[in-house]
Every structure is written in structure tokens, then in C-alpha cells.
């Protein structure tokens, strides 16, 4: 039997508010992390699903290769990613815009990330290969820019499983939601 792997990398949604660009210039950060340093992840994992911690680690390896600093987990961005992933699972869709018309950045309003550059990467695969999600993003110019943007410093990741039909039968697919933001 021939195994076919399918991946659907969605377009990237970027939020870049009209603010003074000098506020996005790199600043001396007391907690600056070099790509070679270990970054502890704190993303929820579930048995038998792709691991968001491994995906996050693989993204940081790619950032290191490009000269960008390692991403650090953000509890707020992680919570938003989890809510978005759960909404896609519950409402059976895969898109940057939810059925109610909202986008990830609507959840950033009033937070520390409401006036900084941010982006959301989504990927849907029919296999659980952690490296596959990162490879898909790297193979898409807008996704790659989101992952490797040196201004991006924080991230939140979440993973959910979708069933092919409402009875829970059929082929499973897996969605990774990754939200990145500057500080």
C-alpha cells in the first residue's frame, strides 16, 4: 500500500499596526536568548498528537540557522492559540478567519501585543510528523517570513485533531496553530 502525505499550509495573516517603526527596532533585552540556548517550552501535549513543544524547538533551530534569536513561549499567545485550535476543532473548520468573522489579532486587543507586529501560521496535515509542519511553513514564503522574522520574540503553539466526519470515524487530520509576536 502506498502512503500519501498531504499538507495544506494556509496563507499567513499578519497584523502590523500603524505605529512608530522605531518602537520595533531591536533593543537591549536583559532576557535575550541566543538560538543555541535551551528554551523551556510549556505548551500542552496530548498523547498521540503532534507535539507543539517539539515543533517549537524545531522552529527555534531554524531561527538559529537564520541568525534570529530563539522564540520564548508566551502564556497569553499560547492561550490564544489553544482557543483558536479548539474553535477550529469544535466548529470543524481550518482557516485564519473563524466562522464568527474574527481573526487571531482580535484576541490581542488591549494586551501587551495589541500594537506590535504579529502573525499566525496554521498547518493541517494527515500525519503526525512534527518536522512536517515546520517543513511546510519553510516551504511557503509568507509562513517562512513569519517564523524567521527577527523582530518576533514570543510565541504560542497549540495542536488539535480533526476527524473526517461528525461521527468521529475516518481519517484524522492535525492542525497546528502558531502565533508569533514582537515585544
Describe this structure as you would to a colleague.
27% of the residues lie in helices and 20% in strands. It is an alpha+beta fold. α1 (52-66) runs parallel beside α3 (130-138). It is globular, with a radius of gyration of 16 Å. Mean pLDDT is 80; it is low at 1-12 and 15-40.
Percent of residues in helices:
25-40%
**CA-CA gap between termini:** 49 Å
Unreliable segments (pLDDT under 50, ≥5 consecutive)?
1-12, 15-40
Shape: globular
Oligomeric description of these chains: single chain
Query: What structural category arises from helix and sheet content?
Result: alpha+beta
Order of helices and strands: EEHEHEHHEE
Radius of gyration: 16 Å
Strand content: 15-25%
Described by strand count, sense and barrel closure, the largest sheet is:
6 strands, mixed
Q: What is the count of helical runs?
A: 4
Query: How many beta-strand runs?
Result: 6
Average pLDDT confidence is: 80
Identify the notable features of this structure and list them briefly:
disordered N terminus, alpha+beta, 6 strands, single chain, six-stranded mixed sheet
Amino acid at each position: 500500500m502506498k502512503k500519501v502525505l498531504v499538507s495544506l499550509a494556509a496563507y499567513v495573516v499578519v497584523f502590523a499596526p500603524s505605529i512608530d517603526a522605531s518602537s520595533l527596532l531591536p533593543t537591549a533585552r536583559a532576557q535575550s536568548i541566543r538560538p543555541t540556548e535551551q528554551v523551556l517550552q510549556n505548551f500542552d501535549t496530548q498523547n498521540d498528537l503532534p507535539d507543539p513543544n517539539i515543533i517549537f524547538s524545531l522552529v527555534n533551530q531554524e531561527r538559529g540557522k537564520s541568525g534570529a534569536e530563539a522564540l520564548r513561549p508566551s502564556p497569553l499567545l499560547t492561550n490564544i492559540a489553544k482557543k483558536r485550535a479548539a474553535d477550529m476543532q469544535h466548529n470543524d473548520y481550518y482557516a485564519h478567519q473563524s466562522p464568527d468573522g474574527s481573526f487571531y489579532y482580535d484576541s490581542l486587543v488591549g494586551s501587551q501585543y495589541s500594537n506590535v507586529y504579529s502573525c499566525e501560521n496554521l498547518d493541517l496535515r494527515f500525519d503526525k510528523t512534527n518536522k512536517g509542519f515546520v517543513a511546510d511553513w519553510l516551504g511557503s514564503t509568507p509562513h517562512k517570513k513569519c517564523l524567521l522574522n527577527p523582530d518576533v520574540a514570543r510565541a504560542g503553539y497549540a495542536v488539535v485533531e480533526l476527524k473526517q466526519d461528525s461521527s468521529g470515524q475516518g481519517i484524522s487530520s492535525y492542525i497546528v496553530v502558531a502565533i508569533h509576536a514582537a515585544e
